[in-house]
Design brief:
The chain is of the alpha+beta class. It has a single domain, classed as Cyclic Phosphodiesterase, Chain: A (Alpha-Beta Complex). The protein has 4 helices and 9 strands. α2 packs across α3. The longest helix is centred in the middle third of the chain and has 16 residues.
């Protein structure tokens, strides 16, 4: 009889915003929602800044992923990340993601992402070929809907100098994500401290 194989896990490694930042992002989403009706807003409790997306991964590999990722970021030191402004991916003409930008801590976040990427490459995970662009997704444009580019431009302009806040970052988290029709849920599997205890 063959052994039971666990279903793969959809994994990613991310930095979490502080509770005050979650409140600030939620307030901005509520303010923007009436004008941007085609946007599906991310629930405040699931907001995160992704360092590395691993995708569907056998559950049996979680232990080694945690081990190499912890080693990779240990000693990097605590970071301070400042969020400000809005933007969209990939463009205003074909927007799919509305995000909050990072105005402080970009170099530190890039170093964290680079270390994680290099460590996971030793386990056979593909190296990211696109430049790391730190951002926090606030909402996604629903498929089959259109948000007028003019309204997006107005929203981005209105929040161009808006500062959501700054917070210390002491660890990243390995998450397993499950997708539902209207939202995603994220289960934390392990903390990856940036400082050595």
């Amino acid at each position: 009889m063959e052994g039971h194989r666990m279903a793969p896990l959809r994994l990613f490694i991310a930095v979490d915003p502080s509770p005050p930042l979650r409140v600030a992002f939620a307030a901005a989403s509520r303010e923007l929602a009436p004008a941007l009706r085609g946007v599906r807003w991310v629930r405040p409790e699931t907001l995160h800044l992704t360092l590395k997306f691993l995708g569907d991964t056998p559950a049996e590999r979680v232990a080694e992923i945690i081990s190499v990722s912890r080693d990779a970021v240990a000693g990097l030191g605590e970071g301070h990340v400042a969020f400000a402004g809005l933007g969209v991916f990939p463009s205003l003409r074909r927007p799919s993601v509305l995000w909050a930008g990072v105005r402080g801590g970009c170099k530190w976040l890039t170093e964290a992402a680079t270390r994680v990427d290099a460590a996971l490459a030793t386990l056979g995970f593909p190296v990211d070929t696109r430049p790391f662009r730190p951002h926090l997704t606030l909402g996604r444009i629903r498929r089959g809907t259109r948000v007028p580019a003019g309204r997006l431009e107005e929203a981005i302009a209105a929040f161009a100098e808006h500062r959501f806040g700054t917070a210390p970052v002491r660890f990243a988290t390995l998450y397993a994500s499950s997708l539902a029709k209207e939202s995603a849920s994220h289960k934390p599997l392990a903390k990856l401290p940036f400082t050595v205890a």
